[in-house]
Predict the 3D structure of the following.
Amino acid sequence: MKILIIRCFPQYMEVKNASYNIQEIGLARALVKKGHQCDIVFWTDKEEKEVQVDVDGKSSITVFYRQSKVFLKNAFFDIDDLIKKYDIIEPSEYNQLAAWKLSKKYPDKTVIYHGPYYCEFNKRYNAMCKVFDKIVLPAYKKNGTTFLVKSDLANNFLTSKGIKSENVTTVGVGIDLDAFKQSDTNEIPDEIKEIQNIKADIKLLYIGRIEERRNIPFLFDILNELKSRNVNAKLVMIGNGDEEYCKNCFDYAKKCGVFDSIYHIKKAEQKYLQYAYKNADIFLLPTRYEIFGMVLLEAMYFGTPAITTKNGGSQILIENGIDGYIIDAFNKSLWCDKIIEASQNSAKISQNAHKKITEKFTWDVLSDKFISTYEKKINNENSTC
């Protein structure tokens, strides 16, 4: 098969020296390894270009960087000549008008990969969907559009709108192990190496954007509570965000008296993050809303016990108390109890988490579900011709 993945969001994605585990690249790699052609369209506001991403030394993925009209955070690409060369196109998100437009124009080859769901925190998205439903829903229902979704929450989001359950398949998200490959450990930046030298009873880790959705001040509340229990905990943070919001967060850390217990790295390449995971005791993700959470996948794969909230990724990845912890409340005392429990059971949690991700959540494993859906789409269309 020939598959074209189309990211409909107008955001430039750097595929060389990436600081993020790009899902489109991971899926495409797995599909190419299994003998299919898979290429990607990413948006750019610069010069259009094509970049080759090596897969196994023999094959590659072509990333087409294309300019487009942008409206309501949608990239409307003029790529009809390109689309005609592929059997399947996979745009992103139910509510992306660009994806909806492609599904109307190419109903016989469109499979939409969707992640968002309703959440109390995400009120703007909830309100936006009420408007978009009136525009996109009739065509999706009429055409029997095929959806692959990242979580059970996303599945419920679509079927609650009246989209037939047989047209919605939960596949999850995979980890791209190739993104962590490097040739020389001497390449590891000194600031990453320093994590290993941090002295603490419990070394906590947060990786991700510093933003309101991720509830960053709560991490400092946790540090403060551990301090009150005479637990020498340190927090490693890798990520950055809006300058003013970051300043406010770290001012709060100073107010809590825990600023000196924080080691902050603003940015790190994806391939080096494994050393952060491997040198931490517990991974924390106190997010208010998460479509999936690639960092949960990564933490579990590298054996760092994860504690997080009820969200898209945690509900499909974590069996509470077995291979991680889900806490459905922002109660610092409860989180600290689980941190201490996780640190005492880290070997078992670590082993179970790594086993689950290796067996069920690599792109090489998940790609079979995508292939099955693509083949079903093609066969159904051929049978109606």
Residues 13 and 140 are 28 Å apart (CA to CA). The two ends are 19 Å apart (CA to CA). The chain has two domains: 2-176+362-384, 182-360. The mean pLDDT is 94.
